[in-house]
């Protein structure tokens, strides 16, 4: 590519999170289900040995009108995965669900996530009742990062920051081998760091957020202007000015076609991402920063190279010297493996603490 020059209700949650994940923590030898719930699709996977997805089932999330329809479709997706594996729900230890925030981790409740059309939905409790197994809910970005930590690109590190530019820009941190949640479980809103005061309007209502400058959504809004000005025939042909159709592959195709305006646009977004990465280096002093999502998958090393160069330019030299910038490697399996790992850890620690599992 030519790119870029230069319901478990987790009442003991705080104590449970203090222990690091380890395969030996599994309360039995049963596999665990991991589930990635997104705004357009859902994916259920059977995770064995804490690292391997041995069966999968995927369904669409769109065209769901009622909360109960969402739950029923998730149950159907789980059942399809179990059928693919040739087992039943009684053969698995638990289900870990990675879901978009905001969520209440302690009660397993979806609060008001965008694109799902639900509010205050006690998802873990409802799924547990229908499936007859314990269910643990986790933030989707945290689950994706934890999956990379357990079985992917972040293995071997204890202090890791994850950034996932997409429609928005999600973030998460693993500090001393543990996911960092903050006082209310909402830590990791790296996309809403102000990096350009008074800059572009962000969906959160603030101006100059990293997300408003470095996400694929921000790139799409800029690309629509380029299309209107006749500066990107490739994007015009594949998406027109419809930003919902401007996937990462569309930008990759425009770059391969040598469209200078698009190359500059993507360069600029990667440069801003690097500024956000520099702030993460200065604040958290990580060993590694993992970048995931479709942009990394489609644009590859050249995109990361620009972001890393910007990071090294803007971070404190003493802190950034040994930081590794790594592309996520598990793709769709990351959140599935991460959610299953969080469920495994939570169940094992609850058992050790004498906390009854609800199912």
Please provide a brief summary of the model.
The protein has 359 residues and is an alpha/beta fold. It is built from twelve helices and twelve strands. It has a five-stranded mixed β-sheet, with helices on both faces. A five-stranded mixed β-sheet has the order 10-9-8-11-12, sandwiched between helices.
Word description of this protein:
The chain has 359 residues and is of the alpha/beta class. It folds into two domains: 13-144 and 333-353, ATPase, nucleotide binding domain (Nucleotidyltransferase, domain 5, 2-Layer Sandwich); 155-327, Nucleotidyltransferase, domain 5, CATH 3.30.420.40. 41% of the residues lie in helices and 17% in strands. The protein has a five-stranded mixed beta sheet with strand order 3-2-1-4-7, with helices on both faces. It has a five-stranded mixed beta sheet with strand order 10-9-8-11-12, with helices on both faces. Helix 9 packs across helix 10 (294-314). The longest helix has 25 residues, at 260-284. The protein is globular and about 55 Å long. It starts with 12 loop residues before the first helix and ends in a 6-residue tail after the last helix. Mean pLDDT is 90; it is low at 4-19 and 23-27.
